[in-house]
Design a protein that fits this description.
Number of helices: 13
Helix content: 55-70%
Strand content: 5-15%
Structural class: alpha/beta
Distance between the termini: 20 Å
Radius of gyration: 26 Å
Largest sheet: 6 strands, mixed
Length: 358
C-alpha cells in the first residue's frame, strides 16, 4: 500500500495540470485579493441600537443618505460584525431635551474599524445635522449633538484575505478531489492498471487507499503552502497560531476525503475521458459559485440561500473561517463536521455501488 502511495505521489508531482489547479490557481486568487485587501475601501456601514428613537426627523434623514448603508440584523450578529470591522459604528439616538439640543447621538465602534471610516461617519452626521438646522432650527440651537466620547470594544481587523483564503483552499481541495481522482482512476481503469493490480496479492482496499493517500498527502502540502503564504505575506489570521494551523489541516483532510468520493463516482460513471469534465463540473461549479467561495452567501436571494447551505463546500468554508478567525477548535465546529460526515456517508455509499475495476 505504501509503495502504491509513493508511486501515486510521484505521478502527481509529474503532472503539470495537477500542480497548476491545486496550487497555481488558488495562489493567483490569494495574491490578487490579498493586495486588494491591503487597501480597504471607505464604505460606511452603520447599525442602530434597539433602543434608538426612530420616530424623529434625524433618524429618517440618516436613512436617506446614500453614503450610509444601514444594517439590520440580530443584536449578537451586529456585535460580531462590529468586532470584525464590517460595521463602522453602532449608533444610539437618545432624546435629551435641553435648551440647545433635543437629541444626542452616541457612537460605539471597535478597534478593528479603520479610523478614516469613523472620520467620514462623523462628517456625514454633522452634514445631516447642519442641513436640518438650516431648515428647522434658527440661531444657535441644533437638533442634535454628537457625543465626542466614542465607546470602543475590542476587535480584530477582518481583512479580505480572512474571507477569501478559506474559499480558495476549499477551491483547491474540491478541484483536486473531484477532477484529480476522476481522471486518475479512469486512466488506471482504461489502461488496465487496476485490472493488473487486482490480479496481484495486494488487497483491493489497499490499492484504492494507497492511491487516495498519495492524493491526500499532495493536497495537504498545497494547504500548507496556501495557508503559509496567506499568513506570512498577507497577515491571514491564525488566532492560536500552530494549534489553529493543525486544526485547519485536520479539517482539510476530512473534507478532502469527502471530495475524493465525488471523484470516484465521476470516474465510474464516465464512459470516455471527454465526459469527465461535464460530470465533474456538475458537482464543482455550483459549489464554487454558491458556497461562499468568492463572496458571502448573504448576497444571494433568500430563496436560494437554503440550497447554498446544504452544499458541503459551504460547511467547509464556514468551519475554516470559524477556526482561523474566530479561534474555534476542531471540536467547536461539530455542526459543520456533522453535515460533512453525512455527505461522506452518502457519497461513499454511491461510490461503492458504482466503482469498477475494469
Amino acid at each position: 500500500m505504501l509503495a502504491v502511495t509513493k508511486a501515486s505521489l510521484k505521478a502527481i508531482f509529474r503532472s503539470p495540470s495537477a500542480v497548476l489547479f491545486s496550487i497555481g490557481f488558488p495562489l493567483v486568487f490569494i495574491l490578487v485579493f490579498g493586495f486588494l485587501g491591503n487597501n480597504r475601501g471607505t464604505s460606511v456601514q452603520i447599525a442602530f441600537t434597539p433602543a434608538t428613537d426612530t420616530a424623529n426627523v434625524l433618524y429618517q434623514s440618516l436613512q436617506k443618505i446614500g453614503s450610509l448603508k444601514i444594517v439590520q440584523k440580530d443584536t449578537n450578529l451586529i456585535r460580531e460584525d462590529l468586532e470584525k470591522g464590517r460595521i463602522t459604528a453602532l449608533l444610539h439616538i437618545e432624546e435629551k431635551p435641553s435648551n440647545n439640543s433635543p437629541y444626542q447621538i452616541n457612537i460605539k465602534s471597535s478597534e478593528a474599524v479603520q479610523p478614516q471610516n469613523l472620520t467620514i461617519l462623523r462628517s456625514l452626521l454633522e452634514a445631516v445635522i447642519a442641513g436640518l438646522n438650516q431648515q428647522q432650527f434658527p440661531e444657535n440651537s441644533t437638533i442634535a449633538t454628537i457625543n465626542q466620547q466614542v465607546e470602543k470594544i475590542p476587535g480584530r481587523i477582518y481583512r479580505t484575505i480572512d474571507f477569501i483564503l478559506p474559499g480558495q483552499l476549499g477551491f483547491s481541495l474540491l478541484s483536486a478531489g473531484v477532477f484529480g481522482v476522476a481522471f486518475l482512476f479512469f486512466n488506471l481503469r482504461q489502461q488496465l492498471v487496476l485490472k493488473r493490480f487486482y490480479a496481484t496479492p495486494i488487497r483491493r482496499g489497499y490499492i484504492v487507499v494507497g492511491e487516495g493517500l498519495g492524493r491526500m498527502l499532495f493536497q495537504l502540502m498545497t494547504a500548507v503552502i496556501i495557508v503559509g503564504i496567506g499568513h506570512f505575506a498577507f497577515n491571514f489570521t491564525l488566532v492560536h497560531g500552530l494549534r489553529t494551523f493543525i486544526d485547519i489541516l485536520l479539517l482539510s483532510s476530512f473534507s478532502l476525503l469527502l471530495f475524493m468520493g465525488f471523484g470516484f463516482i465521476v470516474s465510474s460513471l464516465a464512459k470516455t475521458e471527454s465526459t469527465i469534465p461535464p460530470f465533474a463540473n456538475m458537482i464543482t461549479l455550483p459549489q464554487f459559485l454558491l458556497a461562499g467561495t468568492f463572496f458571502s452567501i448573504d448576497a444571494f436571494p433568500k430563496w436560494l440561500q437554503p440550497f447554498c447551505n446544504i452544499l458541503p463546500l459551504t460547511h467547509f468554508n464556514n468551519a475554516m473561517r470559524n477556526i482561523a478567525f474566530e479561534g474555534a477548535s476542531i471540536t467547536d465546529v461539530g455542526f459543520e463536521l456533522g453535515i460533512l460526515a453525512i455527505w461522506t456517508i452518502v457519497v461513499y455509499a454511491i461510490a461503492i455501488k458504482t466503482f469498477k475495476w475494469e
